[in-house]
Amino acid sequence: MNGPSQPLDAYQLVASLTGHRVDFVVIGGVALQAHGHVRTTVDLDVVAAWTPENVRRLAGALRELEAKPRGVDATYSASTSATRSRSTTAGTS
Q1: Closest CA to 49 of 22, 81, 75
Q2: Of these four, 31, 52, 77, 93, which has the most CB atoms within 10 Å of its CB?
């Protein structure tokens, strides 16, 4: 790591994702809170649809926030992943 990260601003993250028209859902502690379960959390977990166009929109939102990817291969193509996902699930019913 290159230094301390900035604190999460969940509202700014959601605003950027919606502003870039990213197809996503909120999961984890915040989702539980939205359904009335009392739970302390310090992060916001989201899952974005894994389509090439949506991943491009997600990348734009993350660039806007100056987010620093961790634990991902930046050269890994969303279209390759989507193709692999379809091929591995096609035979399972």
Answers
A1: 22
A2: 31
Buried b (16+ CB within 10 A) or exposed e, 8-35: eeeeebbebbeebebebebeebbbeeee
Burial-class residue 80 by CB neighbours within 10 Å (0-12, 13-18, 19+).
exposed
> Amino acid identity, residue 22?
V
Domain that includes residue 27, residue range: 10-86
What is the number of structural domains in the chain? 1
> Which residue do the tokens 């739970």 mark?
39
- Is 91 inside any structural domain? no
d(CA 26, CA 14): 9
This prediction's pTM: 0.62
> Is pLDDT at 84 greater than 90 in this prediction?
no
